[in-house]
Write a structure and sequence with these properties.
With 359 residues, this protein is mainly alpha-helical. Helix content is 73%, strand content 0%. The longest helix has 33 residues.
Length: 359
């Protein structure tokens, strides 16, 4: 519900900020929108890969799931349906802002839409798990010391931040972007640290306890060195300062990959649910509906990216029609997902999940 309310807040706020696009679609705004499109597309694809295209039947543990909705299929279903309504508002906002030339606001709404899609997918995947696990003949998952999804999301934040330091032109690594990059790095590192500290405290194996602690120390040391380089880049932006960020980002990525590789060994993950044929049918219907939403949102994001990159006015009508068609596909996917959740069955014959590839 919180995300739906946030979407409404953004919608109302965007309507009053007409000054954002008064200067036209300049080069800086285009670059920012391209950056937002790439970041959002990557995040949505990652979450879809981890939760919708995986055969790992486990509950979803995420900040987007409240304690109440995480325990009940009905409450998870209601949370998903509320988020589909918020998503419909945001897709409408994006089209309206683009038509009015408020390109800076388009990027803001896209970021909001991405977060809402991630929350929607998490809620949908959890609802699908609950429905499948409740079906006759199914057995619920057994929790392990670590949660693979949380670790993968945290690792992705670190990888994405280091990748941006490596590929973005120095001229675009301005103080606000570097601040957000540092926050993203810290958020990912905190997620990895918290998971490993909890696993170390819960493990009965002496080697595992020590290895979790040593992995965190190794990662923390590398992160401290990298963040010092980021601060230097912010104070004195130049290629030499950026090269140091790339240099010290390498050891951090190696430490993170080693930590995640160790933490996700089978003995730390518990056991996935055993799902009956009846449970699998319900799960497939819900996951297929969620995949339809993600696929449409990725297409919409790609369309916005194309608009940002190409300024040929003769192609504007085609781009706007593509954007309109993508928004219709988002609405169709939301309706499909909502009906699948209400009926616990697919309202139409769904193609295999891999036909919804979002690459």
């Amino acid at each position: 519900m919180a995300n739906s309310g946030s979407a409404k807040s953004t919608s109302s706020g965007g309507g009053s900020g007409s000054g954002g696009g008064s200067g036209g679609f300049n080069s800086q705004q285009r670059r920012r929108l391209v950056f937002m499109c790439d970041m959002c597309k990557s995040k949505m694809q990652l979450v879809a890969d981890l939760l919708l295209l995986s055969s790992d039947n486990r509950p979803v543990h995420s900040d987007s799931l409240s304690a109440a909705s995480g325990q009940s299929f009905d409450k998870s279903r209601d949370a998903v349906i509320a988020r589909t309504k918020g998503l419909s508002i945001l897709t409408h906002d994006v089209q309206s802002q683009l038509n009015m030339g408020r390109y800076a606001e388009v990027g803001d709404s896209l970021g909001e839409m991405c977060e809402l899609v991630v929350a929607l997918v998490e809620s949908s995947a959890h609802a699908a798990y609950l429905a499948a696990a409740e079906a006759p003949g199914s057995q619920a998952a057994v929790a392990g010391l670590v949660d693979r999804y949380r670790l993968s999301r945290a690792r992705h934040e670190v990888e994405q931040s280091c990748g941006l330091l490596r590929t973005a032109p120095v001229s675009e690594l301005n103080p606000p972007l570097l601040l957000e990059l540092s926050r993203s790095l810290s958020r990912g590192l905190r997620g990895l640290t918290d998971a490993c500290v909890l696993a170390a405290d819960s493990s009965r194996d002496r080697f595992a306890r020590e290895q979790f602690k040593l992995s965190v120390k190794c990662m923390s040391s590398s992160a401290t060195a990298l963040l010092a380089c980021v601060r230097e880049l912010k104070a004195r932006p130049c290629e030499a300062a950026r090269a140091r960020c790339v240099l010290f980002g390498g050891p951090l990525l190696q430490a993170v990959h080693a930590l995640v590789g160790f933490a996700t060994e089978p003995q730390f993950l518990g056991e996935a649910a055993s799902v009956s044929a009846e449970g699998r049918a319900v799960q497939t219907a819900v996951l297929g509906g969620a995949m339809s939403v993600v696929s449409a949102c990725v297409l919409l994001t790609q369309c916005l990216r194309d608009i940002a990159l190409h300024t040929d006015s003769s192609k504007v009508p085609d781009y706007r029609q593509r954007l309109h068609n993508s928004a219709l596909a988002v609405s169709d996917g939301c309706n499909l997902l909502s009906q699948a959740l209400r009926d616990r069955t697919s309202p139409r014959t769904l193609p295999p999940l891999n036909c919804h590839a979002v690459n």
